[in-house]
Specification:
single chain, 153 residues, alpha+beta, Nuclear Transport Factor 2, Chain: A, 6-stranded mixed sheet, 6 strands, globular, signal, Ketosteroid isomerase-like protein, SnoaL-like, NTF2-like_dom_sf
């Protein structure tokens, strides 16, 4: 009986290991690419590029590192990005850990650590590590940001 149980377990384990899920890996890669595109858009300091990686809905949210409140809705999120762009000469973002991605259907979340070099007009550069969380939705085959939060560590 013990031998039969071990054989059944080994057979079951072999079946699980032999099954591949290429779409899960592909979705993870696509979400990571969307996160990289978000970083590149922020780096560009161009609201049109930032707008291209976001869903434009009433329920999107943004909390940037120095924010004390949540921007809700695309108009508020866009205004917040434009305010940041107005005061910044440059922003470099480098992912240092993650992003760790989880995809469920057309929704995904990504959590990671990033390092930023922020150049505010008339001030020396600021170096900061921050925890970053993003929620994305897939619309017409493209992953778009619906919530972004980045807080200093």
């Amino acid at each position: 009986m013990a031998l039969r149980s071990r054989l059944a377990f080994c057979t079951f384990t072999a079946m699980l290991l032999s099954q591949s899920s290429p779409s899960i890996g592909a979705e993870d890669t696509d979400v990571k690419t969307a996160i990289e595109a978000n970083h590149a858009a922020i780096h560009s300091l161009n609201i049109a590029e930032i707008a291209n990686v976001w869903l434009h809905g009433a329920d999107v949210t943004l909390v940037n590192p120095n924010d004390t409140s949540v921007s809700v809705g695309w108009d508020a999120v866009s205004d917040r990005w434009e305010d940041m762009i107005e005061h910044v000469d440059g922003l470099d973002i480098k992912q240092t850990e993650g992003p760790f991605v989880s995809v469920t259907g057309d929704f995904a979340r990504a959590v990671g650590i990033a390092h930023a070099t922020l150049r505010i007009k008339s001030q020396p550069p600021i170096e900061v590590n921050f925890a970053e969380t993003d929620v994305l939705v897939k619309k017409n085959g493209k992953w778009l940001i619906v919530a972004h939060s980045a807080k200093p560590m």
